[in-house]
DNA sequence: GCGATCAGTT
DNA sequence: CACAACTGATCGC
């Protein structure tokens, strides 16, 4: 049924219901039938040529062995664009060493192509006995018609990539970045840039911070970061190519009405949308963040009234969810205690309203921020004991993206905490990704010509399902 | 020791 | 149980 929505009626059988995807998530065997327009087929077809989609800039250095450019063939973009049904290919390669508009060009090192002699070829092509096959950069992390990748640091030097974008500082996006990084400039927001330097020890010469809502020209492409409403420093990335095509990469984001007001999303048409599809399933419903924050604050106040010596704990990953504990801090007029490493991170944001509330004394504040993983009954009980009678009970909140109970998505007051002795833990549906309906509203507003999901793409059935939703939402476009 | 990859955790 | 986002163990060099 999914395939039918996806396009031509006769395509169903030709779908490689591929359980055997290759390293890139492409079906491993070629389709046996003529062209179709199913999403899985699109994946397959684009997988054929994507590696050579962008000829590397001519000035790129090559290994000294004089190897000829293996992938500088014709502009395969052409095939690609046709495969995706996006009109015509750009007339010519726009990838030249145009300096960054912000004047950061001088500090941008030119990428040093993997010349270490290590094999780093495209995953599928394993010449003789490649026991260790390197994983190729999946096509959905590469931006066609540009020498750009987004959140692609775990693939070594990506062929043809001269600028690596990092949408935000979460592990599953920066993974692969180490202090040995030498493959090219990393473009990200200033806040993310600080974290990259501070926590990953990346050579500053490679880190290129860009301001939000400011247009830069990078390798001939106009690039603008927009607020993503995800975690601190997270950006949507808007690309405007010289041929007029505009692409939007959402990184991770939570779509909202106010996001729709951005001038870059109000005018023109997005040809390609790289979409954070984390919760692209109708089972994912959750309230606005403000409602959840309101609930958390009210609950904290209620517990404190009953037991003034209650310790409020909020769980968090490295970055994200700050507004939950900031709101408690403001409402209760108490500082925020957290350990030294998180304090360092939070201060690096450069947010005065947050910084001024951070305390390094665990006894002086009834509001503590702990790693999400540590919010377990046993753990919190022990934690309470270490605080030596200063507190007599723990009220903990774990802000999770997904909601198991239908109730929590609809009516916050129906949320039942888990209590053991003096420890109470609430799971609250505070999400920094879009809900299903938010994704739907965003797509109906944006009406992109093509959507590439970037999350949950590992399985073909899932991809087709998501594509079916997109078709439905964009019907009549 | 370092990084890449896998397994495990909430 | 789910999910994102880790965290730790193991392997190879």
TrEMBL record:
Residues 1-70, 91-130 are annotated as: Disordered. Its main location: nucleus. GO terms for molecular function: 5'-3' DNA exonuclease activity; damaged DNA binding. Residues 354-459 form the DNA repair metallo-beta-lactamase domain. Residues 97-116 have a biased composition (Low complexity). One of its GO terms (biological process) is interstrand cross-link repair. It comes from the Eukaryota. It is found in: Nucleus. InterPro entries: DRMBL, RibonucZ/Hydroxyglut_hydro. One of its GO terms (cellular component) is nucleus. Keywords: DNA damage, DNA repair, Nucleus. It holds the Pfam family DRMBL. Belongs to the DNA repair metallo-beta-lactamase (DRMBL) family. This is DNA repair metallo-beta-lactamase domain-containing protein.
């Amino acid at each position: 049924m999914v395939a039918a929505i996806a396009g031509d009626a006769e395509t169903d059988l030709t779908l490689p219901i591929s359980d055997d995807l290759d390293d890139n998530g492409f079906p491993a065997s070629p389709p046996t039938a003529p062209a179709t327009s199913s999403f899985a087929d699109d994946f397959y077809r684009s997988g054929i040529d994507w590696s050579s989609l962008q000829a590397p800039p001519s000035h790129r250095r090559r290994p000294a062995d004089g190897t000829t450019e293996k992938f500088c063939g014709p502009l395969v973009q052409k095939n690609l664009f046709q495969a995706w049904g996006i009109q015509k290919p750009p007339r010519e390669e726009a990838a030249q060493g145009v300096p960054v508009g912000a004047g950061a060009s001088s500090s941008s090192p030119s990428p040093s192509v993997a010349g270490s002699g290590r094999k780093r070829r495209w995953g599928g092509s394993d010449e003789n006995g490649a026991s260790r096959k390197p994983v190729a950069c999946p096509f959905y992390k590469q931006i066609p018609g540009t020498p750009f990748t987004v959140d692609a640091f775990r693939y070594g030097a990506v062929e043809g990539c001269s600028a690596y974008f990092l949408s935000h500082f979460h592990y599953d996006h920066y993974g692969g970045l180490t202090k040995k990084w030498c493959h090219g400039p990393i473009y990200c927001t200033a806040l993310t840039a600080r974290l990259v330097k501070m926590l990953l020890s990346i050579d500053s010469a490679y880190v290129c911070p860009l301001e939000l809502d400011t247009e830069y020209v990078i390798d001939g492409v106009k690039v603008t970061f927009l607020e993503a409403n995800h975690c601190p420093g997270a950006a949507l990335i808007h690309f405007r190519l010289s041929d007029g095509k505009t692409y939007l990469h959402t990184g991770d984001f939570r779509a909202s009405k106010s996001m729709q007001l951005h001038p870059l999303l109000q005018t023109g048409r997005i040809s390609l949308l790289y979409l954070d599809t984390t919760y692209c399933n109708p089972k994912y419903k959750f309230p606005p963040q403000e409602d959840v924050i309101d609930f958390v604050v009210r609950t904290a106040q209620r517990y404190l009234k009953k037991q003034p010596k209650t310790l409020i704990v909020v769980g968090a990953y490295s970055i994200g969810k700050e507004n939950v504990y900031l709101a408690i801090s403001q409402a209760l007029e108490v500082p925020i205690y957290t350990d030294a490493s998180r304090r360092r991170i939070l201060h690096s944001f450069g947010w005065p309203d947050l910084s001024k509330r951070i305390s390094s004394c665990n006894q002086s504040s009834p509001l503590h921020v702990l790693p999400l993983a540590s919010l377990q009954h046993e753990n919190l009980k022990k934690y309470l004991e270490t605080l030596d009678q200063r507190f007599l009970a723990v009220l903990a909140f774990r802000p999770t993206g997904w909601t198991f109970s239908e109730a929590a998505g609809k009516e916050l007051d129906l949320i039942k905490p888990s209590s053991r002795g003096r420890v109470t833990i609430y799971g609250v549906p505070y999400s920094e990704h879009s809900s299903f309906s938010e994704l739907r509203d965003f797509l109906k507003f944006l009406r992109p010509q093509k959507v590439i999901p970037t999350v949950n793409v590992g399985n073909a059935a899932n991809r087709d399902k998501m594509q079916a939703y997109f078709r439905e939402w964009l019907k009549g476009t």
